[in-house]
Each structure stands twice: as C-alpha cells, then as structure tokens.
Amino acid sequence: MNLKRFLERYFEDPDLQKKFKRIFYAVLALLVVVDFFVHREHVTFLWDTIPGFMSLYGFVATVLMIVVSKAIGHAWLMKSEDYYD
Predict the structure, then answer these.
(1) Are residues 48 and 34 in the same domain?
(2) In terms of domains, do 34 and 53 share one?
(3) How far apart are CA 81 and CA 22, in angstroms?
(4) How many distinct structural domains can be found in the chain?
(5) 55 and 68 fall within a common domain
(6) What does residue 52 show for φ and ψ, rounded to 5 degrees?
(7) If residue 55 lies in a helix (H) or strand (E), which one and from where to where?
(8) What domain range is 31 assigned to?
(9) pLDDT in tens, 47-72
(10) Closest by alpha carbon to 55, among 39, 33, 24?
(11) CA-wise closest residue to 59 among 28, 35, 33, 38
(12) Could you read off the pLDDT of 16-36 as tens digits, one per residue?
C-alpha cells in the first residue's frame, strides 16, 4: 500500500483514527513511565532530575505555542467578512 492511500484512509476513517490515537497515547505514556527508571549521573539543571519533566515541558510549550499563535492570528491577521466592501 502506498503512503498516499494509507494517509487518505487514515484521515477518512474515524475508527482507524481512534486506534492510532490509542497507540500513540500508549507509547507516550510508556515513555513517561520509562523515564522514571532512567539513571541520571551528570545532571546540569535541577529539573533534569524530575522524571517526566521534559515530556510535560514539551506538552505545555506546544499548547502555549498553539494558543499564542491562534491569538495573534485572530488579532492581527483575520479581517472581517466585509473588509473589502
């Protein structure tokens, strides 16, 4: 199966989307759990010792980027529907 057909099938089939989301969430949860068992000998910063911190930091940073970019887009880029009239 080529990639184009696979992606079309994935984006159109809600059941397949749910399966992939569950798999991705399970993998993410597994990575956070594994992070509790990683031994860190040489840490530079205090937060490097907190298990799962980088996952949480990445998630919060991504959500903030999305929220801020949407706010900027609505404030500066969007025009009203009758802008050109």
Answers:
(1) no
(2) no
(3) 39
(4) 2
(5) yes
(6) 80, 5
(7) helix 53-72
(8) 1-38
(9) 888 888 888 899 899 999 999 999 99
(10) 33
(11) 28
(12) 888 988 998 999 889 888 888
